[in-house]
Fold Flagellar hook-basal body complex protein FliE.
Amino acid sequence: MFGISASALHPASAAATYDHVASGAGTAGSGFAGFLTHAIGTAVDQSASAEIAARNGLQGQGDLTGIVTSVAQAQLALQTTVAIRDRLIQAYQSIMNMPI
């Protein structure tokens, strides 16, 4: 849609890059990092499928119910991702404001 391929936004590549830079700070498949990787990957995948469904709908292919469902799922995934991001920022700010 915006000229960025879904593979360029794949969370596994971002996690691998982070692991490389952090040099052994943990693997992307374990614990909280794995949860975030999965959540972001799901959001990206649902967004990509919604984009494909919308494109097919504009070309006269596919059914309207499937298109609406796919777009609604992508919207929910995006809202969930934004909520997680907001909570992470709030937690970081709370930790930074703690007295030492």
The two ends are 47 Å apart (CA to CA). Helices lie at 11-22, 31-58, 64-96. The chain has one domain: 10-16+26-96. Residues 64-96 form the longest helix (33 residues).
